[in-house]
Amino acid sequence: MKKALALLLAVTISLSLAACATTSTETKKNDFPTETITIMVPFNAGASNDMLVRVLAQAAQESTNTKIIVENKGGSGGVVGTTEFAATAKPNGYDVAFTVVGCFTTQQYLRDCQFSLDDFKGVIGLTDSPLLLEVANNSKWNTLEELLSEKELIIGIPGTGTLPHVILATLLDQAGVSVSMVPFSSDGEAMPALLNGTIDCYVNHPNVYNNNADNLRILACACDERLLDFPDVPTLKECGYDLSMSVYTGLLVPAETPQEVVDTLYEIFTKAKETDTWKNYLDNNFIDMFELDGVAFTQKLAADYPMFSEYLEQLGFERGSVS
Predict the structure, then answer these.
(1) What share of the chain has pLDDT > 90, as a percent?
(2) Alpha helix (H) ranges present in the chain?
(3) Residues 262/93, Cβ–Cβ less than 8 Å
(4) Same fold, 37-130+246-314 and 137-221
(5) How many angstroms separate the CA atoms of 194 and 180, rounded?
(6) pLDDT of residue 123
(7) CATH architecture assigned to 37-130+246-314
(8) What span, in angstroms and rounded, lies between the C-alpha atoms of 279 and 64?
(9) Cα–Cα distance, 239 to 188 (Å, whole number)
(10) Element of type H or E holding 201
(11) How far is it, in rounded angstroms, from Cα 164 to Cα 204?
(12) CATH superfamily, with its number, for domain 137-221
């Protein structure tokens, strides 16, 4: 009898502990996040992408009271920070990575990256920003046709393998224009060179143009259709070049992150995107909202890789040729 009672007591205690553990685990999951979330931005502080993420963090704080800090780890078109994140980030939802399309397309082709899309799980798509081809307002070129009539041009690029580099170099290659390239570490560094004639043309985003509008002239946009904010600017396709490209962004987490945690992150950042803080920032900087969930975001990154690889091959770049 005593043995039976002891056995019954042991089973009861075991079941109680298991129930407590289950309840504790469920509560822990349901309570996420209880700590500060860190978003790693693989670009330097003050860059346009850094500013974008800081506005997102502010919007998340306003909409869900979620505490978020931004950590910058720039270098090599986003590769440096993404490499470190892939190696060290914990799959608990508190480590989140911001990324741009080039990091998983052009940079994957050009560099021997120690990470791949398989190392990550998508959270949400954030923004989609068109690319504009610009010259100085005091230059002799008023149209794209006039610019491409030159036998040789000096172009500025914000890093090897960046989308502005790919679209501009591809355009000039198709037009048969010889090119000399001058690399810059940022748009802010390139603008004075464009305005003083050190370089002839440059490709960047509408928000960069907006900050220098009085001194710049847009010759074309790399879009499928004309932009509502710039209705008089023709597309490259209208000018006879079948090229269209935009820079889209989103958030990622380590691949092993539990899906329920990813779903909570998606809800947090979806609510952040609904705030006036976020919408006003995008409107003021001519940036479009990118309405993709995490799965669709990573699927698009994977689908776009072959296209960018083809562009780079046509430009003469070999896989892994950039250190």
Answers:
(1) 78
(2) 2-31, 48-64, 79-88, 106-110, 144-148, 163-175, 187-195, 206-211, 259-273, 276-284, 294-314
(3) yes
(4) yes
(5) 14
(6) 98
(7) 3-Layer(aba) Sandwich (3.40)
(8) 16
(9) 28
(10) none
(11) 6
(12) Periplasmic binding protein-like II (3.40.190.10)
Cα–Cα distances in Å, from 238 out to 188, 219, 220, 233? 29, 12, 9, 10
Q: What is the CA radius of gyration of the chain?
A: 24
User: What's the per-residue H, E or C state across 94-132?
Assistant: CEEEEEEHHHHCHHHHHCCCCCCHHHEEEEEEEEEEECE
68-72 and 37-41: which strand pairing?
parallel
Q: Residue 42: which of 211, 251, 207 has the closest Cα?
A: 251
Q: Which structure tokens are listed for 297? A: 């975001």
Which of 99, 140, 151 is closest to 121 using CA atoms? 99
List the chain residues with pLDDT less than 50. Answer: 1-13, 15, 19-27
Q: Where are the domains of the chain?
A: 37-130+246-314, 137-221
Report how far residue 57's alpha carbon sits from residue 68's, in angstroms, rounded to the nearest whole number: 6
Distance of alpha carbon 226 from the chain centroid: 22
